[in-house]
Amino acid sequence: MGRRCCAYHGFCFEARQKRITVGNEHDYIDLVFYHRLLRCHLLIDLKVRHFQHSDAGQMNFYLNYWKREVTTPEDTPLVGLLLCSDKDQTKVEYAIGGLDQQVFVSRYLVALPAFMRLLAAAGYDVKVVKAGHFRTLKDILAAA
């Protein structure tokens, strides 16, 4: 499968459930992207559960395989991204500390939080928003 360009800041989609084979065993990388301008691969592993320390080892395995078997000398170091439904930051730090690879762990949401929680996360004073007579998001952003 060739690279298919995505219209998202230089990323090209390469594969979904990319099969890699070591010995007689197959593993599957959930998503693979390539950034045209940075010339690096992004390997993404999706977890529908909380982060476990074994996830970091699995991603490190994927990155080592990809670095040896796929990347070219012109490519910059690849990046691994673990997306989990939840994570304990201390466990993440212990699990990825000392890895030679660039591995990142982030939490994802399966649904958007309530509107006021989004505003609070974006730095807006929710009390001011509630007290005001704003009809649209545009009104709230204009008042900020």
Structure description:
By secondary structure, the protein is α/β, with parallel strands linked by helices. The chain has 5 helices and 6 strands; from the N terminus they run ββββαβαβααα. The protein has helices at residues 53-69, 89-96, 115-121, 126-131, 137-143, and strands at 4-8, 11-22, 25-35, 40-46, 79-84, 102-107. The protein has a 6-stranded mixed sheet with strand order 1-2-3-4-5-6, covered by helices on one side. It is elongated. The relative contact order is 0.12.
Describe the structure concisely.
31% of the residues lie in helices and 33% in strands. The chain is an alpha/beta fold and 144 residues long. It folds into two domains: 4-111, Trna Endonuclease, Chain: A, domain 1 (3-Layer(aba) Sandwich); 112-144, no CATH class.
Please provide the ordered H/E string of secondary-structure elements. EEEEHEHEHHH
Number of strands: 6
Low-confidence segments, given as residue ranges, are none
Q: State the helix count.
A: 5
Major sheet: arrangement of strands: 1-2-3-4-5-6
Q: Please tell me the overall pLDDT.
A: 80
Major sheet characteristics: 6 strands, mixed
Which topology of the largest domain does CATH recognise?
A: Trna Endonuclease, Chain: A, domain 1
Helix-strand makeup class: alpha/beta
The top-level CATH class of the largest domain is Alpha Beta
Q: Using only CA atoms, what is the Rg?
A: 20 Å
Global shape: elongated
How many domains? The number is 2
The percent range for helix content is 25-40%
Taken as a percent bin, the fraction of beta residues is: 25-35%
C-alpha termini separation: 47 Å
Based on the coordinates given, report the CATH architecture of the largest domain.
Answer: 3-Layer(aba) Sandwich
